[in-house]
Amino acid sequence: MNSIHDNLYQQGLVRPREGRVLAGVVAGLGRRFGIDPWPARLLFVLVLLLIPGSQILIYPILWILMPNERTSAVPVAPPPPPSPEPA
Description:
The protein is an all-alpha fold. It has one domain (2-65). It is 51% helix and 0% strand. It has helices spanning 2-11, 25-32, 37-50, 54-65. Helix 2 (25-32) packs across helix 3 (37-50). The longest helix has 14 residues, at 37-50. It is elongated, with a radius of gyration of 20 Å.
């Protein structure tokens, strides 16, 4: 499963951490193909209406397969221990 996630991540198919409505699947698809999230959601719903029952299968499968967007935060080192006070 990690190889699938890594492959999709390299292709730019990730679920963003910001701007999600449910799981971020359609927002991630829209970002990948250069479409704003709301028009992408509308297009996704319209396509799914053409194929009856597909919304029950496609969205959860994409939810499982698409990895979350990785954070680029650098871990912060813990503060140094306090120095002993002079006597």
